[in-house]
Each structure stands twice: as structure tokens, then as C-alpha cells.
Amino acid sequence: MRHAGKLLDKAIDRTEVLRAARAGACLRNWPSIVGDFIAEKAQPSRYDQGVLWISVAGSAWSQELRLRKLDLIERLNSAAQEKDLFTDLRFEVKQKRGEEPHEEDKGEAIRLAYRATLKGKSIQELAERRLKKQ
Q1: Taking residues 102-128, what's their average pLDDT?
Q2: Is 30:43 a contact under the CB 8 Å cutoff?
Q3: Which of 29, 38, 61, 82 could share a disulfide with 56, CB 3.0–4.6 Å?
Q4: pLDDT confidence of residue 17
Q5: pTM of whole model > 0.85?
Q6: Maximum CA pair distance of the chain?
Q7: What whole-number distance in Å separates Cα of residue 58 and Cα of residue 93?
Q8: Containing domain of residue 49, as a range?
Q9: How many domains does the chain have?
């Protein structure tokens, strides 16, 4: 019985590998699927079991594409000529190397940096730090 289970696992993995290969082939045409304007600000980063992860240039782009999610999934599946190759889209904000953060993301970057400096400090250390600033 264990032997059959191993074969089944291999068959399932192979099916998913083939799906990922078909998705990759489709995504080579990303600019023609989503348009050049969107392709400049958003790039597919990985595909996992029907979910396409897309790296976007900022949180505003993440929100914009989230609103267009159903249309984008439909376009992707149409380009792939498969009904359910792409089932969901997830967005992650990533800027290109050497690129400054976008205006809407600078505030969040400052908050995260500030939190990192406070991490691991005692209440007394935080109070002393605050008093020095006054």
C-alpha cells in the first residue's frame, strides 16, 4: 500500500510541475496580457498551485491591481487557453534595487525602522530615550 501512495505523490507533484511550466510559458507574454503600462509597475514573481505572486512598485499599485484581480485572472487564463491555470493573484510590494521607495511607502518604511530600533529595549530604556529628546 505504501508503494501506491508514493506513486500517487509523484503523480500529483508531476501534474503541478507541468502546470507551473504551462504558467511560466504563458507569463513570458506578460506585457501583452496586462498591457505595457501595468507591466512596467508589476511583474510576476512566482507561481504556486494556481496562485500567481506579483511584485508591484508600491502599495497603490497593489491596491489598484487587487481591484482588477478578476479581470487579470480571466486574461491570464485566456492567454494560457486553460480555464483554471490561474486561480488567485497575490501582490507583494518590492522595489527594484537602487530605487527609492515610492512616496506612499516612505511613511511605512520610517515606522518599520523606528519599531526595529525599539525592539528588545526595556520600558526604562525607552523612557530615558524619550526624555533625552525633550
Answers
A1: 59
A2: yes
A3: 61
A4: 81
A5: no
A6: 72
A7: 5
A8: 2-99
A9: 2
